[in-house]
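Sequence design from tokenized structure. All designs in this work follow the same two-part layout: the structure record, then the generated sequence. An example of the structure record is given first.
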């Protein structure tokens, strides 16, 4: 059973899991792929769940302030002062009462943030066990664990974005500059002193210094432009982004939304230059804590609403988010929207499933990765397009015959301007930069020019660096610009240029000219080769629940904006697109406030309708038939503020009143109605245009950017029940447009093949999508459009689990799903002779190792169960259950290809008894996050084999070795030939005969379960490991839990021969230098208490170099406790079932409770990683058979401490004829023979066994 607790997942944005391609063991043959892991930092990737106290948000039943204003149809700031005071008093009183109730219960709690506007509640830290008690307190509505978010980062990379969205024309023609509007930037901070952060003289201030003082908020007034700011994470007035490595992300975002500089003098003028900016810093300046919590930014939103904010911008998120409308963040967004506030959130920078690895298979249409919290229903999720121009660093290439100025991108910490100064270096072309191509090429002190392709970007530059090059320039192998991966090992400039520029330099070199490159040129604006296209990083929708996301597109690629300390810079990401929409919303709000006077939800929804209706659907650059980019990628299209400011009409889905249509799942036929409303005093006639398209295929894969029309579909557009290609919308009235689709005979386009039946091209269904466009026949008014998307087919048909690594690529996507031996982390089922994995060869010996699944998830799963099945597929045991498991999206290596589920390790037992040798399955049973979806089952075969192979014949005549070997399991993997105890040859068990020129010859056989039959023992040398210069920590493992207080801290320090000091957790630790290996080793034991510990490892050298890393781990030496309530050890024969109260408890709240090996209770230990105790009472039913019944209760905690209790209950057996005691006093057992229970009054003597 799962706990009765409302919780939601810790969200961390950086996930990393690295798999080596192959591993070898000594003299053994290639044993296949070994799992080498660097622990992931997403909660669903941990096998143990850490610490002590939790951070929660406690929401109360008393309505928050904003709901009273919403019911009145006004903004909060416009609520009459007396009524607002009354609302505030009611909220504060409810919070005081709740806190008093908590304190009277003697709960150890630290109260944190108080929220009164977007929600009525407060956050706090307390133990998880005590948090569960809070829901029973009168007035408490819900208790939620708080999300954690990492500091947002833009992609490493003027403001022409304003021109793209027609902000300049809107300002000039309509006078909408954002005056009187307030934009809250919920981010990493702003710099109020920046020269571009000013209001023009005479501009109206919506928030004055007096307003800030009167609001009595924790922050301070800064300037007219930035009237309020507060560091919500560090609880101080330092609202700049000053942490080491800070990206000035928030300042860049704020500049795009509302800077007011002079573009003629390199300044930035944002979309709404006269709007005021709130500096709501939610990421602190602690260099060790690059994260924030959901309650922190909910508090920031809360304060913003108190000040009368109009727009909130949140440029943060986590990939492949689940929609959770009940989370505090989603509720805050919803309530802000209900009070008339637009919340613009970046969609994410992960493109689509498999980005940077492979294009998705056609049989897996669930490719969306749009992030949370932009999946919140009330937000505007913003996708990114490319800017028309980009600010580029420029290098000068001087050849014998010409001089070329070339724009470049820099992707390492080595700035070429600083490295070279005024000096130059000659260029050498080194092909693809492989090690072989560097052989015999002199690049010492020169710049290596390398083509993209063959090997990764990082390897190219590391190869150049290893051969003495002073810089690496990689040119693309296709038109466009490169966003390259990098690595901390790269110490030279790691640069990229376009294909065109690269080939120009190559042609000069091939002509025999000397080319020298200088880096002393000033940056300049150059044309973006991908101008106007969708950014390749922009995350696709839909959500896992088939909700429509993202909503709209704005420029986010190559955006020039403000940085702190008066600086400027270029960044890319949907983080840069969202503030375009935030600023744009502020301008359109001016129109809505002036023309329509809407308030509350009507205001915010009408602004969103105008923005989405007038957005321009973008044509797909590599699509066919003038197809658009998928609405799943661009939403309604590119924001057009001029059209939004001028349209008199709008159009919505008649069933939802939204400017988008989510058809969800359908089977060939679908229909929807659109309501077109006209606010003008004259009728408008629109021409109707409907596009119907889907993604193109290519050799079994999706073409990431390519869409094409769906042919042979029956499409009907009607008005008032009659087919129509125009609609007349009466003055100040409305009209209905009906659309119906029949895709029974639809055909989709496959590159190189042409059109073919869509149901055949997409075996698991496909998205049918497009736009309904309305064009004014007189071209007087702007065009309108509504995007629509639906899934034709069974949304549950596509697999959640990627097939096993023994399947060929094309069947399996990552080739990572499989079973791994715990003993050596090698996958089972590898045939070393044929060098291939086979499902029927997967075997293990439980006496030597356990196994655990490694699973590549192709889709988000709401629930995943790990079960053991017998050969017939019947469930024998449930090992583990997990919730809200995200897909393995990859994203250029930032995400994992697979998830090792060590917590689902199987030791070969069922009901605590070893199973017999034979065939079994590890079942991964999963359910997608879609209402009504059935569970899917994927079975990994595993053979239990405890018997070693046997030789029936072994002879050697001095020249030829003959053998015959057999195995009772799945077979012999290989036979080793040994000479003088050393392996000299590995052969197939089918070989039978081997020529050997030696005297002392022996053989041994190894089966696929690693059972070894040895004729002569042999000793195998271990593998030699080489490392990357850094502090290598062997123990303790990251976030590992230990059942001992004596913790060994061990490892080595490389690249520090002159080590001067080394401390762990502030304690000096002795090291020993290994002369042969050239590094220092350390090994010291610490005596520690039960707790979550974080040790900082600090190494310093005599020449002033210093490095430090941290390692968090858990010590838990306390065994969990099982308390069984009173029960009868002997019951009558009619009692076939008993229910017993059982209390389980521990000092950490990660518990797994088993009855006879079956998991009956699990409790995950959620972040933040703190020590939390748990106590749960369970009422468990036990089925009794006649005779003695014994049940084994096993309770396992975080560190594997195990407590076992046994319950024994005797159920009396049915009696036989014979002498027995029958008492007939009262209504007792009377006369009777055998088993009957008789009724009799008085004294009755009976023969037989009566109960």
């Amino acid at each position: 059973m799962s706990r009765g607790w409302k919780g939601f997942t810790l969200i961390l944005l950086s996930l990393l899991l690295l798999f080596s391609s192959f591993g070898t063991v000594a003299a053994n043959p290639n044993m296949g792929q070994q799992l080498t892991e660097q622990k992931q930092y997403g909660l669903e990737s941990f096998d143990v769940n850490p610490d002590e106290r939790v951070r929660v948000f406690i929401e109360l039943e008393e309505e928050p302030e904003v709901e009273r204003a919403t019911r009145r149809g006004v903004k909060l700031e416009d609520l009459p002062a007396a009524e607002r005071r009354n609302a505030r008093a009611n909220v504060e009183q409810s919070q005081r009462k709740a806190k008093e109730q908590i304190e009277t219960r003697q709960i150890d709690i630290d109260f944190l943030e108080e929220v009164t506007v977007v929600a009525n509640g407060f956050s706090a830290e307390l133990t998880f066990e005590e948090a569960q008690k809070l829901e029973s307190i009168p007035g408490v509505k819900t208790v939620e664990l708080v999300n954690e978010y990492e500091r947002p980062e833009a992609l490493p990379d003027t403001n022409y974005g304003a021109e793209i969205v027609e902000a300049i024309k809107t300002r000039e023609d309509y006078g909408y500059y954002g005056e009187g509007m307030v934009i809250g930037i919920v981010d990493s901070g702003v710099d109020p002193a920046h020269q571009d952060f000013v209001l023009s003289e005479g501009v109206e201030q919506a928030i004055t210094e007096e307003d800030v003082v009167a609001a009595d908020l924790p922050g301070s007034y800064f300037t007219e432009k930035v009237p309020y700011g507060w560091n919500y994470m560090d609880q101080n007035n330092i609202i700049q982004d000053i942490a080491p490595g800070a990206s000035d992300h928030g300042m860049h975002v704020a500049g795009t939304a509302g800077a007011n500089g002079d573009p003629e003098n390199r300044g930035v003028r944002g979309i709404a230059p006269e709007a005021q900016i709130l500096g709501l810093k939610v990421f602190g300046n602690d260099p060790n804590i690059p994260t924030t919590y959901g309650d922190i930014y909910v508090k920031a939103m809360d304060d913003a609403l108190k000040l009368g904010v109009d727009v909130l911008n949140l440029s943060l998120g986590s990939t492949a988010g689940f929609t959770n409308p009940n989370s505090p963040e989603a509720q805050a967004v919803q309530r802000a929207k209900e009070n008339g506030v637009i919340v613009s959130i970046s969609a994410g920078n992960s493109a689509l499933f498999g980005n940077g690895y492979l294009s998705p298979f056609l049989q897996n249409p669930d490719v969306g990765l749009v992030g949370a919290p932009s999946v919140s229903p009330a937000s505007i999720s913003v996708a990114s397009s490319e800017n028309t121009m980009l600010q580029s660093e420029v290098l000068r290439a001087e050849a014998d015959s010409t001089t070329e100025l070339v724009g470049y991108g820099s992707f390492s910490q080595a700035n070429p301007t600083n490295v070279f100064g005024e000096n130059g270096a000659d260029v050498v072309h080194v092909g693809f930069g492989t090690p072989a191509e560097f052989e015999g090429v002199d690049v010492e002190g020169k710049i290596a020019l390398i083509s993209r392709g063959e090997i990764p970007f990082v390897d190219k530059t590391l190869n150049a660096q290893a051969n003495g090059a002073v810089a690496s320039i990689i040119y693309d192998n296709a038109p466009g610009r490169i966003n390259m991966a990098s690595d901390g090992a790269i110490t030279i400039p790691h640069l990229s240029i376009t294909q065109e520029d690269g080939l120009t330099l190559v042609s000069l070199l091939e002509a025999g000219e000397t080319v020298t490159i200088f880096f002393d040129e000033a940056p300049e604006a150059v044309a973006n080769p991908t101008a106007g296209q969708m950014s390749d990083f922009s995350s696709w929708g839909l959500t896992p629940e088939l909700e429509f996301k993202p909503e709209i597109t704005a420029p986010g690629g190559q955006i020039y904006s403000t940085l702190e300390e008066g600086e400027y810079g270029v960044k890319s990401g949907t983080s840069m697109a969202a503030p375009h929409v935030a600023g744009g919303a502020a301008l359109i709000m001016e129109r809505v406030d002036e023309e329509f006077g809407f308030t509350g939800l009507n205001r915010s929804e009408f602004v969103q309708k105008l923005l989405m209706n007038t957005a321009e659907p973008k044509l797909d650059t590599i699509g066919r038939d003038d197809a658009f980019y998928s609405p799943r990628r661009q939403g309604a299209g590119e924001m057009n503020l001029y059209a939004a400011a001028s349209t008199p009409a709008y159009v919505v889905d008649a069933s939802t009143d939204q400017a988008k249509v989510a058809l969800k799942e359908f089977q060939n036929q679908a229909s929807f109605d659109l309501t077109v409303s006209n606010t003008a005093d004259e009728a408008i006639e629109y021409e109707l245009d409907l596009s119907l398209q889907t993604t193109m295929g290519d050799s079994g894969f999706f073409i990431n950017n390519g869409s094409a029309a769906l042919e042979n579909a029956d499409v009907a557009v009607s008005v008032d029940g009659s087919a129509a290609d125009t609609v007349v919308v009466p003055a100040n009235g409305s009209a209905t447009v009906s659309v119906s689709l029949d895709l029974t005979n639809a055909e989709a386009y496959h590159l190189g093949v042409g059109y073919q039946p869509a149901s055949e091209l997409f075996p698991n269904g496909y998205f049918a999508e497009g736009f309904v466009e309305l064009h004014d026949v007189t071209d007087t008014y702007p065009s309108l459009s509504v995007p629509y998307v639906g899934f034709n087919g069974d949304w549950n048909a596509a697999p959640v689990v990627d097939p096993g690594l023994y399947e060929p690529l094309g069947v399996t996507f990552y080739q990572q799903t499989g079973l791994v031996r715990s003993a050596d982390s090698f996958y089972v089922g590898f045939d070393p002779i044929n060098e291939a994995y086979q499902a029927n060869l997967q075997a293990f010996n439980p006496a030597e190792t356990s196994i655990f699944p490694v699973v590549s998830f192709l889709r988000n799963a709401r629930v995943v169960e790990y079960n053991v099945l017998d050969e017939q597929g019947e469930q024998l045991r449930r090992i583990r259950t997990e919730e809200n498991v995200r897909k393995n999206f990859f994203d250029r290596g930032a995400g994992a290809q697979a998830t090792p589920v060590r917590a689902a390790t199987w030791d070969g037992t069922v009901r605590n008894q070893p199973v017999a040798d034979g065939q079994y399955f590890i079942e991964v049973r999963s359910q997608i996050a879609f209402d009504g979806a059935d569970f899917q089952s994927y079975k990994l075969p595993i053979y239990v084999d405890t018997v070693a192979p046997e030789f029936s014949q072994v002879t050697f005549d001095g020249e030829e070795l003959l053998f015959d070997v057999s195995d009772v399991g799945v077979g012999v993997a290989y036979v080793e030939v040994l000479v003088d105890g050393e392996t000299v040859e590995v052969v197939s068990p089918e070989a039978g005969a081997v020529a050997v020129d030696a005297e002392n010859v022996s053989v041994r056989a190894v089966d696929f379960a690693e059972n070894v039959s040895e004729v002569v023992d042999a000793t195998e040398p271990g593998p030699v490991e080489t490392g990357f210069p850094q502090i290598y920590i062997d123990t303790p493992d990251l976030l590992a839990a230990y059942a001992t207080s004596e913790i060994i801290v061990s490892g080595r320090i490389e690249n520090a021969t002159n080590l001067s000091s080394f401390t762990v957790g502030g304690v000096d630790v002795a090291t020993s230098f290994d002369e042969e290996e050239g590094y220092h080793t350390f090994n010291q034991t610490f005596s520690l208490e039960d707790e979550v510990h974080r040790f900082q490892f600090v190494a310093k050298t005599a020449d002033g170099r210093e490095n430090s890393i941290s390692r968090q781990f858990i010590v838990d030496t306390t065994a969990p406790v099982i308390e069984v309530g009173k029960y009868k050890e002997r019951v009558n024969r009619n009692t076939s079932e008993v229910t017993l109260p059982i209390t389980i408890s521990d000092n950490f709240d990660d518990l797994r409770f088993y009855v006879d090996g079956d998991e009956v209770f699990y409790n995950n230990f959620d972040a933040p990683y703190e020590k939390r105790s748990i106590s749960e009472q369970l009422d468990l039913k036990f089925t009794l058979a006649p005779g003695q019944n014994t049940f084994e209760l096993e309770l396992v905690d975080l560190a594997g401490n195990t407590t076992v209790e046994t319950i024994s209950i005797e159920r009396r057996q049915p009696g036989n004829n014979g002498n027995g005691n029958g008492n007939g006093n009262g209504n007792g057992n009377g006369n009777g023979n055998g088993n009957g229970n008789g009724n009799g009054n008085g004294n009755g003597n009976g023969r037989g066994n009566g109960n």
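The longest helix spans residues 81-104. We note this feature because it recurs in several other targets discussed in the main text.
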